[in-house]
Amino acid sequence: MQSIRKAFAAVIAAFVILALTLAALFALAGCTESKDTGFGSDLPSNIQVIDDEFVIGEPGKGAQDFSFTNRSGKGISGIALKASGDETFTPIVERGTFAWESGASARLYQSVESESLYDIQIVYDNGDVSVLHGVALASLSTVDVRIDAVSALTYLDYADTLGQKKSTLAAEQVYKRAEEEAAAAAQAAAAAEEQRRAEEEAAAAEAAAAAEAAAANSYYYAPPSSNGGSSGAVDQSADSCLDF
């Protein structure tokens, strides 16, 4: 009987040890589990998440510090940059390599020229691509990325390095109007060119038809001349045939 009690006590002790071990493991997992910050996983090497904020790039080496908050209402999956006037964007964050949710903040360290203007390409997680034009990045400090509810244009609300609040919406609206006017002018020029070619082709066809008619009427039967002779021309309008 005593041996049974000892065996039972050993089993109970084993269960207690197992329970404590599992509890410790679960507690450890809870402490080390990564917090879901909405930033996605498998981030590129130039991005970290520190205190629920993206940190893109590295401080120092002449890099300027920008604080961005995504207030567009959509997730951002890529950012690229180029000097205004250049043809090709250089990715800051490759498209599809991170998930910057609306409401989340990001700190960007980027070297920019103080007197230069830049275009910023933003790729949204639904595939839409927007471009911000002629941004003086060196003057920006705290930036909100927004989408205008009326025009659907992406723009920036920002505080400059002096703390003054500004917006790029008006500039983006001007750029869009200029772009639309340029597209309309190009379309009108293409239509005018097409009309000109059509008129040239019609005139050429008319001239060819006139030349063909003139050639067909160059030989004809003329009435006898007043001196009883013949004009020497053959009247092709006569119904008779010539026998040779």
Which fold name is given in CATH as the topology of the domain at 47-167?
A: Immunoglobulin-like
Strand order of the largest sheet: 1-2-6-3-9-10-11
Instruction: Give the ordered list of helices and strands.
Output: HEEEEEEEEEEEH
Beta-sheet strand percentage?
25-35%
Q: How many H/I helical runs? A: 2
Mean pLDDT: 77
Compute the number of strand runs: 11
Quaternary arrangement of the chains shown?
Answer: single chain
Can you walk me through this structure?
- By secondary structure, the protein is α+β, with helices and mostly antiparallel strands.
- Among the domains are: 47-167, Immunoglobulin-like (Sandwich); 169-210.
- Helices cover 32% and strands 26% of the residues.
- It has helices at residues 2-32, 169-216, and strands at residues 47-49, 53-56, 64-70, 76-83, 90-93, 105-110, 118-124, 129-135, 140-147, 154-160, 165-167.
- The strands form 2 sheets. A 7-stranded mixed sheet has the order 1-2-6-3-9-10-11. It has a 4-stranded antiparallel sheet with strand order 5-4-7-8.
